[in-house]
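Project standup — Tuesday

K.O.: blocked on the structure for the chain from last sprint. Re-posting the sequence here as requested.
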Amino acid sequence: MFVVLVEDDPYIAQSICAALDFLNISVEHVSTARTADYFVRHSAVDLCLLDLGLPDQDGLELLKQWRQDQIHLPVLVLTARLHTQQCVEALNLGADDYLTKPFELDELIARIHALSRRHRGFSSNILQFADLSLNRDTQEVFYQQQAIQLSRREYSLLETLMSHPNQILKNEQLLDKLYGYQDSIESNALNVHIYHLRQKLNADFIQTIRGVGYMFKAPGES
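H.V.: unblocked you, prediction finished:
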């Protein structure tokens, strides 16, 4: 699991990072909304711990923008605000859970694991994006209600991209997913799989981010 912690209090951040590191959960700490937004859009993040009281932008506004842009990663809101309305607003904007400071680290860890299980359960069957659907149980793919035949690696690549819509996935991340840590991989292997996927889907779902990787977006989106 890869977690992004968005927290401007260095002492709270240090405690949370230490607890996650101890449990072998990868964590990246950022302290501003701008950095958090860039990181979420350019990395394969599994879960975000989001403080609402950030120095450059309200965390609620950042959350609202992510949901409007179809970024659906699980978000656990952290807030020192005592007003219940703030937590209700966060949930209405698409937050998955919240904790009010101060909190026990054990409770935070329990909620992270619960969110992870819930998200896996929610997404374990069907991934749907516009007219494209992927069934993880049967490994079937349909575009405009027509079955699409994919190779094993094409399916794995599409599943990875659809699991992180509107996020840039680096070439190295995608190659790791497809081949693991094999030493001998053709330099154009990923490009070939992307090419075949685009041909079979008959739509420009997959956007090239030159020199970096690829992003999965609905056709026609800028």
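K.O.: great, moving the ticket to review. The chain has two domains: 2-122, 126-216. Helices lie at 10-22, 33-42, 59-68, 84-92, 105-122, 152-163, 171-179, 189-201.
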